[in-house]
Amino acid sequence: MRGKGRLSAVLSEFRGIVARKTKGDNIPRIDYPRLGEKVHRGHYAIRISAPAGECHVAIDGSGWRSCRREAGYFWFDWHPEPGTHHIVVRNRADNGWGHTEMISEAE
Hints:
- 0% of the residues lie in helices and 54% in strands.
- The protein is an all-beta fold.
- It has a single domain, classed as Immunoglobulin-like.
- Strand 8 and strand 9 form a beta hairpin.
């Protein structure tokens, strides 16, 4: 799924965003990266708005990895490679799991 020969991944053209609702609407939201933002090779912190509880990220089909809670948001430290990336976020609050998926196209 990853492109070769580019130095940045572009998350500018979403094919779609999918959210599955649960009772109480605890759907996490991916705040950053934003539409049109170029994410370069190196460190990038994905910011997620979600109710307090647990939050996990899976990128490009990888296993679930825990996010850290800080300053009212969840954060995931990412080291992106060039290409297309599929980001899935899940959050568990008192009322169950909420999921959000983002599919992005590389430059």
